[in-house]
Amino acid sequence: MMKISSSAEATFLEQVFAKYDFSKEDSALLADTLVDADLRGISSHGIQRLAWYLNMIKEHIIEPKNKPIILKETPTSLLIDANQNMGHIASALAMKSLIEKTKKSVISVAVIRNSNHFGTAGYYSRMAAEAGLIGISNTNTRPLVVPTNSKDAFLGSNAFAFTFPADPHPFVFDGATSVVSGGKIQLLAKKGEQIPGEWAIDGDRGVVKDANAAEDILSKVAFTEEQPGGGVLTLGGNSEENSNYKGFGNSLVVELLTGILAQGSISADTNTGKHDFSQFFMAIDPSFFGDLEVLKGNVESMFDRIRNLDKLPGTQIMIPGDREYKRYDENKAHGVSIDDTTTKQLQDIATELNIQSPAAL
Amino acid sequence: MMKISSSAEATFLEQVFAKYDFSKEDSALLADTLVDADLRGISSHGIQRLAWYLNMIKEHIIEPKNKPIILKETPTSLLIDANQNMGHIASALAMKSLIEKTKKSVISVAVIRNSNHFGTAGYYSRMAAEAGLIGISNTNTRPLVVPTNSKDAFLGSNAFAFTFPADPHPFVFDGATSVVSGGKIQLLAKKGEQIPGEWAIDGDRGVVKDANAAEDILSKVAFTEEQPGGGVLTLGGNSEENSNYKGFGNSLVVELLTGILAQGSISADTNTGKHDFSQFFMAIDPSFFGDLEVLKGNVESMFDRIRNLDKLPGTQIMIPGDREYKRYDENKAHGVSIDDTTTKQLQDIATELNIQSPAAL
């Protein structure tokens, strides 16, 4: 484990992406999305993804020189072809445009097809929040998630991010629609730990507690033709009696708004070959409905009442976003943590490209 | 238990609402929303609510002669004051307008304040689906739902409905964002049954299995100043380890889009006095992104693949909407079921208004 400053991380990443033929502007954006994830403590979506991205470039799954193509556009809507470049690039383009459109039209919507992984969903909806707007961001993913009563993974972990302007920071609800993301299981597997709850099942819908066993299932169902059965559960757990069909419904909503609406691949068809993910974005101007400062005050007052509810001893009530903004400030001041595997990967990448790897703090 | 034909139910309801000073058009709409819920097997939102609605009229919580007021309007947006009439009236007005707006502008949004209960969320999003559009419908409710780690109810069961055009019927995902609705617990309490899963907790976050004990908690937290603690859990159950903070986040999203955006009451403040609920609606035109028939074909093909996945013995994989459309056809043919308490209430209402109560089949 080492710590590096977020500015050193950004400088290094910009150099790497530039060497891999991304434009200066795209390199800066990609670096910012990864640094932003690390600062927020979402390290599963930070610099540890770099080697994976670079491999996909080498395999021509990602094409760094391609520019996104706007296929259709109206004052309230956009259909974009990401042109097989990083999902981040078309997504930031889409949200920038939606912010302009929404300030004129109260609401607007964008769909992206032919895309790749786009980092954290929250990055784009936070762009809207910073402009005083409500932001929504969705992506489909590789197939990991098992529908209610099914033995086989079919749905993606299908991220959903929703932001609402508030002080001292926006409300940011950002994560997989499934009970957990695949990355959370991967993290426990790396540490050799047990899964604490009902997160993953085997091919007979038996709950899998060993994170390595679960990770073994996920690596097959999400990335290969081999389908042993099992995968990640929908929110609501293994049994219908805790309404896991509601988690199933939430995952399907994202599938419909992404792969279906974009006419890209559905998650089930992305386990081999190119990613071909699709993304969905929306922005709404709350100031049409009321004065923005009044609305923000009402939000803050509601959140404070929730934080101060009577609670279980030794616990806190955290509003979505609280934790990541706290970590952001800490990591900005004290640096972001890089695990040993990633440290080694960064050194290899630096050597290959003849640049300096980021210095430990 | 008796069965009545849905047409007899509609005729009776139209007469009742007309006697209570609703306009002919509003009476027909209100009757249709209740009959529709009964036909779909959502009896918690059907004719069994009639006595409750009529009581609220007598108490001037609902004002039948008031007309909704459009406070602000653009080609893509609406802000409506329901003027303390039934939520159904302003909601149907909003969705009718959004359908027109969305056919011209790809997307549009409406918010309603100063409203009451609006029936099933799905009624309005299905209006969009029938017009070939994606529909979204939300409402906040009385406070029932306990945030992660909290001992006290604060959030509403906060309904979310999402529809997407498909054949032979649209995708309809419609329900409380909490693990279950209050109505589901009420139903078990009436039958004296145990709660099968983690649905409700007491003031120490202990899971309550006795439906009558749970119902007793809910009737206090949702309708009185008395706050014994406890309530309905968020989707994800009692413990953080199964990601109940995701269910909490989903509930908060609805709270932000309704009570906050409308500048009405938040759910926490509706336990006494007038309802003052708020509603949020949206419609999106999928045909901007692709040919509607192609999209519908892709949806149906995805759903068929899901339905045919390897499954647990003795189970089915149901797509949201499947169950309610099946019940709709059955109940249309064979009549809707009315429980004994409701049958008695309908007879009393008929006597009071000097009209015929619906005849048993």
UniProtKB/TrEMBL annotation, chains A, B:
Keywords: Oxidoreductase. It comes from the Bacteria. It holds the Pfam family Ldh_2. Belongs to the LDH2/MDH2 oxidoreductase family. This is Malate lactate dehydrogenase.
